[in-house]
Amino acid sequence: MAGLKDHPIAERIRLNPPAPPASLSLDALKALVMECGADDCGIVSLDDPLVKDEAVHARRAFPGARLAVSIVSRMNRAPIRSPARSASNNEFHKISHDVDDIARELVRRLEDMGISAMNPPMAFPMEFDKYPERGWVVSHKLIAEAAGVGKRGIHRSVIHPKFGSFILLGTVLVDLDIEATSKPLDYNPCFECRLCVVACPVGAIKPDGYFDFSSCLNHNYQQFMGGFAQWIEDIADAKSAKDYRERQPLAETVKRWQSLSYGPNYNAAYCVAVCPAGEDIMAGYLSDRKAHVDKIVKPLQDKVEPLYVVRDSDAASHAAKMFPHKTLRFVRSSARASSIGAFLFGMGLTFQRNRAKGLNATYHFVFTGQEPKEATVVIKNQKLAVTDGLIGTPDLRIQADSAAWLKTLNGQLSVVLALAQRKIRLKGPLKLLKAFGACFPK
């Protein structure tokens, strides 16, 4: 067998070395992206301070990455606005595949020019080895904002200045230097009409702009990740078919089949549906705001449907008060902590402001064992602050074995038993631990 020195392919390359990689200007690269089918695009250097945190993750997946190309694909508006969520989800799925196809075509075109590039998926599949920790390769929203194709509104989706909220995003990482990159928008297309606030069936978006991530996750993404895991657990725990049906009605089982067969469905995404921002959408809203509400917002508000909420949560209270005609479906929280670091970070995503009303306390957490860590948690005036280290004088000091604490969070160990076994020790009133737990209902 011939070695590399005498290999015929190697010999041909020596005789006819490949041309050096092409050089592209900003405009040429953007034109190439549009040729591949994008409706808009932006480009940002991964050395830009705006994306320094994302650059770490991007280069872990593709070490040569120097640029990030943000790809925008426009969705049709009427399907997204329809109370018939099958129409909406069909559009979401179709455009998500389009984004991946555009990204793949761009990578192929660049590769043919001698430029190395890599296209992370726009959504799924993801890197779920450490779920529920971060699964995405790169945040398309952060890249899009830095690349100048839009800004996040109070509903936390990116709003394009022309297409509004009716877009899906992708990113291509490129090993290329160019002389200039796009600039972020100098204004936000969101004008804070707050229609997303009144349309959200579980109150995840607050009038002051606060976002209750866990309420959105538990309802809108019930057929995804955490909700799917809970369905499997219900199957495993069921003693009989009858017992299973009491846990999961027939319609829920069929929804899971549909999710497995055709892709998981969003239960709402009403915040996107009702959004009037963007040049293509705002004209109709400005000409007749009442018609916009009557034709788009109210049908979604009036729809009879199940709302997936955690018992004793802000979402449950909001849904019962604002949408009494909708059925509350009580579920376990989709957010789970797999590490102490994830627990401390996740508190900001699962904190329930209304449940914290009247609580003003400082907590010191001292974790021992597999994951030693110290942190200070302050809950005051319905706000949460989490800081590394022990700061100030605590109202309650909690010392816990890290593994035992995670088991209590995920329902594998009762707090009472953990206290009895001295795996959790308190210095201060027990009622403050109960009050703390009420701010993060499971």
Question: What is the approximate shape?
Answer: globular
**Number of H/I helices:** 19
By secondary-structure content and strand pairing, the structural class works out as alpha+beta
Side by side, the strands of the main sheet go: 11-10-9-12-13
- The whole-number mean of residue pLDDT values reads 94
The biggest sheet amounts to: 5 strands, mixed
Q: In words, what does this structure look like?
A:
The protein is α+β, with helices and mostly antiparallel strands and 442 residues long. It has 19 helices and 13 strands. The strands form 4 sheets. Strands 11-10-9-12-13 form a 5-stranded mixed beta sheet. The chain has a 4-stranded antiparallel beta sheet with strand order 1-2-6-3, with helices on both faces. It has a two-stranded antiparallel ribbon with strand order 4-5. A hairpin with a 5-residue loop joins strand 4 (151-152) and strand 5. Helix 13 packs across helix 14 (289-302). The longest helix has 28 residues, at 85-112. It is globular.
Question: What's the topology here?
Answer:
Elements: H1 8-15, H2 26-35, E1 40-45, H3 52-61, E2 67-74, H4 77-81, H5 85-112, E3 117-118, H6 140-146, E4 151-152, E5 158-159, E6 167-174, H7 195-199, H8 213-220, H9 225-237, H10 241-247, H11 250-262, H12 270-274, H13 279-287, H14 289-302, E7 306-309, H15 314-322, E8 327-330, H16 340-350, E9 361-368, E10 373-380, E11 383-388, E12 396-401, H17 402-409, H18 415-420, E13 424-427, H19 430-438
Parallel strand pairs: 7-8, 9-12
Antiparallel strand pairs: 1-2, 2-6, 3-6, 4-5, 9-10, 10-11, 12-13
Helix pairs in contact: 13-14
